[in-house]
Write a structure and sequence with these properties.
mainly alpha, two-stranded antiparallel sheet, 10 helices, 7 strands, globular
């Protein structure tokens, strides 16, 4: 069954098109070609034509985008789940290699710089997973009619989809480097993960689309902003750096001058605050401390493996090893 947008007398509308009609005959949907994709080859994508196909109206005529966006919300959650899962898998594979590969007389996992890289990747994975689980819970409660959770999902899912799906390919690339040349060989799983993850940033609205959709939600549905900050305020007082980041974010949103130009910056800040709030409330202290120090306080570089001195990496690396 396909959901598609098509023009109707009342405007662009949403239709459900079955592959097989109720009488058993095939709906006249022509598959023109399969796309030769970079990755995701086991999941075929095609270009199609409808040749007098039968479709059933879903929702009101002219309200196609508003109707289909409910599906988009679900599949955006899929993108976040897939990205978080891919990051976790890549981290586990890199950690496994570092535990068993020896160089300069010691396991890679015991080398200071490799520990820094793997701990940083763990923080990224933990943040993505924690945010994803919160959004999955919000989605379940929204489906059951919880309006507050629905409002939170509307904005938090858009910003998390943007941020997590952007970071996942970078994390996969860094994990691939942990294996050296072997990471770039098809005999290992990381090459496939490296190809798969960029697609999740493109699906259901690539970076600009997701960022602008978050702005649209804030402008047209201000209750989503209220729900977002109500959630963020639950973590106030747990970590000074989080509190300061939340205050900076609220200040950033006091002005909407050049807001489209600043869209990615604003959405990234929203996503980091959302992740940070979940971590300081629910994650082990070492993970939350490292996240706040490096993602919220600004004491970090642009590459993974730039954690500052003084952080307790042992419990963080134990989190990475727990998947082995």
């Amino acid at each position: 069954l396909f959901l598609t947008l098509a023009q109707a007398p009342g405007g662009l509308s949403c239709f459900a098109l079955p592959r097989v009609l109720p009488g058993g005959e095939r709906n006249p949907i022509r598959f023109m070609r399969l796309k030769d994709k970079l990755g995701n080859r086991s999941n075929a994508s095609s270009e199609i034509e409808y040749d007098h196909a039968t479709g059933w109206l879903v929702g009101e005529e002219g309200a196609g985008v508003r109707t289909i966006v409910e599906m988009v919300n679900m599949t955006r959650l899929d993108c976040v789940i897939g990205s978080a899962s891919g990051m976790r898998t890549a981290l586990v594979l890199a950690t496994h290699h570092a535990r068993h590969r020896r160089a300069f007389g010691a396991a890679l996992l015991d080398q200071p710089l490799m520990r820094n890289v793997l701990a940083d990747l763990t923080i990224e994975s933990e943040a993505a997973t924690t945010a994803m689980l919160r959004l999955a819970g919000a989605n379940d409660r929204a489906v059951r009619g919880d309006e507050g959770e629905s409002a939170l999902r509307r904005l938090a899912l858009a910003v998390t989809k943007y941020a997590v799906c952007k970071r996942a390919p970078m994390a996969a690339g860094e994990a691939l480097e942990c294996l050296g040349g072997n990471g770039y060989v098809e005999d290992f799983d990381l090459a496939r993960i490296y190809r798969e993850l960029p697609l999740l940033s493109i699906w259901e609205g690539s970076g600009n689309v997701a960022a602008l959709d978050a702005l649209r939600a804030m402008a047209r549905e201000p209750h989503t902003v209220d729900a977002f900050f109500a959630e963020a305020d639950l973590a106030v007082g747990a970590d000074r750096r989080y509190d300061e980041a939340l205050a900076r974010l609220k200040k950033e949103l006091t002005s909407f001058d050049d807001i489209e130009l600043r869209a990615r910056r604003v959405v990234e800040q929203l996503a980091l605050v959302f992740q940070g709030g979940q971590l300081v409330r629910h994650a082990p202290a070492a993970v939350a401390d490292a996240f706040c120090a490096t993602r919220l306080a600004g004491d970090w570089g642009h590459a993974f493996g730039t954690l500052p001195a003084g952080l307790d990496l042992d419990p963080i690396l134990e989190r990475a090893a727990s998947g082995l």
